[in-house]
Every structure is written in C-alpha cells, then in structure tokens.
Please model this.
Amino acid sequence: MQPISSIRELEALDRRLAYLAKDLSIRPGSIFRIACQYLGNWGIELNETNRKWIEAKSVESYIAEWKYGGKGLDDAIERAVKRAGLSRGNFDLNTMLAEMTVQIILSMHDEKRVFRICDIGAGAGSTSEALLDRLATVMGEETGRQFARRFIELYLVEPSMVRLSEAFVKLEGNKLKPKNCELICAPHTHIGRLRDGEFDFVISSAVFHHMSFPRYLSQTRQKLAEDGVMVIGDWYHLLCHHPAYIVPLLLALEISPEKLMLFKHIFNVDEGDEARIDAMLTPQQLDSKQKALLYLAALGEEMRPVNNACFMFLEALESFGDRKRKIKEAGFETDIAALRKEHKGFISLTSNVRRAYPNNDITSVISAARVPAGKRKLKMAV
Model:
C-alpha cells in the first residue's frame, strides 16, 4: 500500500478511524496526534506540503480533548495506573522532578538570583506544589519559606481556567508560598508566545507527550536564560509506534470483529507484524509497551460506566531514546559529564536521568541545560 500525503486523503483516513472507534469507551482521537516520526508506520507520508496542516490538526485535537478533562477522568486514570502496577503514576514523576530541580536550584543559588520557574501544562498545580514541598523537606519549613519568598517565582501555563483556579488555591495555601505566582491561561502549544530568555527553569510533568512535532523543544530553549535548565518528567512507550501495536488494545476495548478487520485493512496490518517489530526493541522498551497496554486496557474498563469517551489514546508518546535525541537536536546539553563540567547547577548530580522503574523508561525524568555563554543581567532579590 502506497503512503498517502494529500490533505483530502488524510482527512478521509482520519474520518475512517473515528468511525471505527466511535463505540469504544476510550477512543484514539485524530491519527495526527502521534509523534511525527511514526506517521510513516501508519501509512502517512509527511512532506513540506502537508506538514503544517498535519501539525495544526494535531494541536486542534489536543486542545479539543483538554476542554473535557476533569476530576472524573483524573480519578479513572489514577485507578487504571494502579491496576496496571504503575504505582502512583504522575505522583512519582512530580516527586522525581521536584527532587532533581531543587538539587540544581540549590547548586546555582548565589544569594542574589531570583529563579523564575515556568511550569508548562501546570494542571491543578501538583508539579509546582511538589517543588515547594521538596524545598521544605531539604531546607526545613522555616528556611524553605524564607528561600521561596525571596528567590522563587512561579509561572503556571495551563489551558484550563478551572485547573488554574485549583492551582491558585493549592499554592496560596502552601506553607512555602513563593515570592510571586503568575497564572497564564494558554495551551501548552502556545509556549512560543512567552518572552525569550525570561525563565531560569522550565519544568513540565506528563505534558510533552502531547506534542507531536519537536518544535516545542527549540521554543522552550529560546524562553530560557543563557544558563537556563529544562526538567521534563514524562511517560515513554512505543504503543503508538505502529498500528499493529494498537490491535491488542482494540481487542481489550471490545471492538467488533468486523471493525477490527477493517482497521487492519486500512492500516495494512499483517499477521506477524507485532512480533517482527518486537524483535527490534530492547527488553526495556518491550516492558514499557506491555505496561502501557495494561494501563490503557484498565482505563477502558474504568471509563466504560462513565459513557463519556473524553480520553484519547493516540498520543505523541515515544521512546525515551527518541525524546533524548530530540532534546539534543533542539540545542540542549544532555551529557552529564559535560553538564557537570560546564554548568554549576549539575555539579552534585551523578546523573541527569531518573527512572521510577529500573527495568524500563516508562516514567522518567530528564534534565538538560543551555550551557552558560557569558554573564547575563540578574534579577536581584529584595
């Protein structure tokens, strides 16, 4: 089957996928949600003519989904995470991210610098809250309070005003209420509208797997100061890598045999494709893929009584190796030896990668930095 590239054919393909999944408890969403490097596996040829259109469709699908999130979905996700044996899910990511970020902040602290920290996809403020709580743990509550009120400014970017309101209440009530906390209601995809060079840190937890094209990484780098640091906590797996990997999930979601056969035909899935691709993966990648399947199957069961398919399982999830490569290509330093040598924030770190599970990368945190290129004007504490 020849790859398709015309916008008319791409629109028709997306409609057919929506038809196949319309009765499922969780749905795939637009096919353009997947990481752009995997489009070819789904029979789509990405080229200069259709690239902007596909990227716009991806953003459109994610923004539409974010409007329908809420506590019911969050609770279902949390239950599914536990059923899949993935511990406390995003709580682990936030904890690891906070530990690493605070360690870097304290190594950079010079009694003058105010750290401007941008939390991308802040949600209800759990990541920023974890950061403040970690400061209290490391420094003690009273010293941590003084530090946060003199040297920490938080900027929370989140598309949901409801979530931002929850974040405001959460951070206002935190024992380490920071020097400044600014709420920015905007989609994560609008990071390019923030000021260049404005932030000392960009942190983000379980968000960047909603970005199908890597432009967001180069935009993030532009928003950072010369020695700015990015710390990402995210989920990594290859379930969206190939349509053959989606077949077991569709079976778990109880798709009809007729529609499953049509799915295989449309996306050219042959018997043995899954085993053939599995043979090229590492044991860690295979383990991550299997855990992701268990999680999504459990989520399908959790969402069935709700009868509101507001969760889309096709996402820009990718391998940890793919993400790390993109970070380097965007102009970040990721080599820990180089970071320890050239950036004072990393002096005490033995690794800039932390994993919740030693046998796979499914939940991992990675930090990277713009290596200092000279002195910059500091914002002074008062």
In short: The mean pLDDT is 90. The chain has two domains: 7-87+240-303, 90-237+318-369. Residues 7-87+240-303 form one domain.
